[in-house]
Amino acid sequence: MDITRFISTHRKLLLVGFLLLILIFIATFPLYTRASDVRVLTIILIYVVLAVSWAMFSGTTGYMSLAPAAFFGLGIYTMALLQEALPFPVIIVIGSLISFAFALLVGLVTLRLRGIYFTIFTFGLVIFMTEIVQYLETRLYNRHGWDITPIDNVTILYIMLGLVVVTVLAIYLIRRSRYGLAQLSIGGNEEAAEHMGINTTRTKVLTFAVSSTFMGAAGVVIAPVLIYVNANIAFSPFYSFMPILMAIFGGMGQLSGPIIGAVIFGYLEMRLRSELFNHFMLGFGIIMVAVILFLPNGIVGLVPMLQSKLGGLMARLRKGEQGEQHANT
Amino acid sequence: MVERIPQLIIVGIFQGSIYGLLAMGLSLQYGVCRVLNITHGEFVMLGAVLTFTFSQLGINPLLAPVIIGPLLFAIGFLLQATLFRSLKARASSPAAFEGNALLAAFGVMYIFQYIARITWGGRLMPSYYLADLVSFLGMDFTLNQPVSFAIALALGVAVYLFLSRSRMGRAIRATAEDPGTAGLMGVNTNMILAFSFGLGAMLAGIAGTLTSIRTAVSTTIGFSNTVIALIVVTLGGLGSVPGSFVAGIIIGIVSMLVAGLWEPILTVPVYYAMLMILLLVRPTGILGKK
Question: Full-prediction pTM beyond 0.90?
Answer without folding.
Answer: no
